[in-house]
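agent> fetching stored inputs for the phosphoenolpyruvate docking request
agent> found them:
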Amino acid sequence: MQAWVIGNWKQNPATKREVETLVTEIVTANNERSVNNSNTDSSHDKAKTCQLMLAPSCIHLSAVSSRLQDSSILCAAQDISAHSATVGAYTGDCSAQQVADAGATWTILGHSERRQYHQESNEILLAKLVCALEQKLGAVLCIGETQAQYDARDTIKVIDEQLQVVKQLLAQPIAKSMDLDHTLAEQLIIAYEPVWAIGTGKVPTVSEVSATHKHIKEQLASFASKLPAITVLYGGSVNADNADSFAASPVIDGALVGGASLKAESFLAIAKAFS
Ligand code: PEP
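agent> prediction call returned; pasting tokens
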């Protein structure tokens, strides 16, 4: 399975100039990495490919996607409107059509910060997932438990509730019209992000994450017999030092990275760990 490393820049950096510097550094370092990989590749020793993706804030989407055009790195939005996939009277929102037009091919959905500060429920997320699919955007759906839920050993219960939105999505006309085997599985990624691990420097053990990922994969498989393995990423304080340990698990298909994606060096070190 191809690995994915996705940088979620959140509400960073502050200026267009800093965005330009960061994206240029990442593209340059990635080009060097690709050259090094192809020099060391042989038919017996193929490096596992790692797809990189960057999710800048909406205002920087066009600039970043233009800069990424000649690279292998994909561009994602951090969110889309739940109200309309196209246009309408929804002040402050950006639609799936608008972010696709700005160059995004994916969108993050249901990040814990969206759930916390914008009260995003499964109902809202279902609407957003449908909008994404209608505009042919892939969706990285974030799920994960809070510290209190982790302490109460409710992780599985919480993520099962959050995954119900995928089951509901499968019943929607847009999903029914898609080829589950290929198109839907290729347009949906799950990012397991324990809320207590995001930006805190605290991480669950690799065996805890692996057990949760195994469960997520089994749950998704139980929703539709034709649904093949869906990519499941881990997110929460992944950095250049701990990425290798997560990458060693066969059920951790990559990482969703916040803080460490704001420096080319650490982002590319994480990509290397998953390559
Ligand atoms: C995130 O916000 O998705 C995230 C994983 O952040 P961090 O890597 O900073 O913990």
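agent> quick read of the result: Residues 42-47 have pLDDT under 50 and may be disordered.
agent> awaiting further instructions
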